[in-house]
Design a protein that fits this description.
alpha+beta; Aminopeptidase; Alpha-Beta Plaits; 8-stranded mixed sheet; 4-stranded antiparallel sheet; 11 helices; 18 strands; globular
């Protein structure tokens, strides 16, 4: 099965800077996301979805009607337009490595940035494929522009093959997914679907029906600022207290770099401020809500210890809920995941049911009574200048979506 124009679309889309911004109070958090959203409306209309539009919040909606005369569920296909704030998404220069030889890929000679096969064993399994990488300066943006391109490819294929039975399909492209706000301003009624799939996963064949439970913590440390020339016995440096607090975290456990599989973590990822006041932002992640409560209790223990150590400082901890494990909901609708697995099998791929050490729009949508597992895109090393994707795996992802629509039509 061939999907014309997929590579061309992908290369064009990743060059559009769509990074979201966690510090922004607007929605979408960056106006530049709309550059891609508006472009996608044109793309959808061009392939035949005449009702495509972008609303005031930056959500792109479109519909491909069913072509069968029986009542079927409506299925939504969802991807997000924004890229992660972690690494620059400006001036992306994708590099195409045809007939990959299985070895290291030099991303940048100038800066000696190398995608090493030894450090990326999955990459070595793609020998002979067309590998698309970064130029070593930015992320690639396959997360989730690959998902967008794969959905467009599947829609285009279904439209050009009217003999293939399909259900009514709703399309949704969201902003701000990478900062956890992707479905803040959309409702199930607007999506107008019975079930949904995000196309936002990684390795070929993966179907994900479980995410972390996630909370966000913020520790605000207020010290006493004094001119440094006259500060003896007076200055209470909030930056140093923050450093002291972080030093309390375990070095060999409870962090992203020391955990895997079903292990949770506490991840301090941002520290901002001055001697007067410093703010520390922390991600709490665990597959069980009880694990989050233990992490919150641990943080409060650390904060209490620092408060006693620095009694003149004010140290406040705030914890807010982000999302919960979607498996709680998806277990009530097993058919949704089972059909995705069958679609992978029908595409000649060995399916792998997996967990997400992270979250997707699907986690929150599932709790909005729209069961939404996640389907692979074929990408790897997301949020990194070492991000890469195999073009052939993108074709397969589109093929899986086509086969999935066939199964729903049956």
């Amino acid at each position: 099965m061939e999907f014309e124009g997929m590579l061309k679309r992908f290369l064009e889309f990743v060059k559009i800077d769509t990074q979201s911004d966690e510090s922004s109070d607007s929605f979408p958090s960056t106006k530049k996301q709309l550059n891609l959203s508006n472009r996608l409306v044109d793309e959808l209309k061009t392939i035949g979805l005449k009702d495509a539009f972008v609303n005031k919040w930056g959500y792109v909606f479109a519909t491909l009607e069913s072509n069968v005369n029986k009542k079927l569920p409506t299925i939504a296909l969802i991807s997000h337009v924004d890229t992660a704030p972690d690494v620059s998404g400006k001036d992306v220069k994708p590099k195409i490595n045809k007939n990959y030889d299985g070895g290291d890929i030099i991303l940048s000679d100038k800066d000696n940035v190398i995608l090493k096969a030894e450090d990326n064993p999955y990459l070595s399994t793609k020998k002979g494929k067309t590998i698309i990488t970064t130029s070593g300066d930015t992320l690639l943006g396959a997360d989730d522009k690959a998902g967008i391109v794969e959905i467009l490819g599947a829609l285009e294929y279904l439209i050009s093959h009217p003999d293939i039975a399909r259900p009514r399909i709703r399309v949704l492209f969201t902003p701000d997914e990478e900062i956890g706000n992707g479905v803040n301003h959309v409702t199930k009624k607007e999506i107008d679907a019975d079930y949904a799939y995000t196309v936002d996963g990684e390795k070929l064949g993966e179907i994900e029906d479980e995410t972390f439970c996630a909370d966000s913590a913020e520790i605000i440390i207020t010290g006493i600022n004094v001119h440094p020339g006259y500060a003896k016995g007076k200055l209470l440096n909030a930056v140093k207290i923050a450093s002291d607090l972080i030093n309390e975290f375990p070095k060999d456990a409870l962090s992203p770099e020391t955990t895997e599989k079903r292990e949770g973590y506490i991840h301090p990822y941002s520290i901002t401020g001055f001697a007067e006041q410093t703010t520390l932002k922390i991600l709490l992640r665990d597959f069980e809500e009880s694990g989050l409560r233990k992490q919150e209790k641990y943080l409060r223990t650390v904060v209490d210890k620092m408060s006693k150590k620095h009694p003149k400082a004010s140290i406040k901890l705030n914890v807010t809920e982000s999302y919960r494990n979607m498996k709680v909901i998806l277990d009530e609708y097993p058919k949704v995941t089972e059909l995705a697995i069958k679609a992978v099998e029908n595409s000649g791929i060995k399916p792998e049911r997996n967990i997400i050490r992270g979250g997707t729009d699907g986690a929150r949508l599932s709790f909005m009574e729209l069961p939404t597992p996640n389907i692979f895109t074929g990408g790897s090393n997301f949020h990194s200048k070492f991000e890469w994707i195999a073009l052939e795996d993108m074709y397969k992802a589109s093929e899986v979506l086509v086969n999935l629509m066939k199964l729903w039509a049956e």
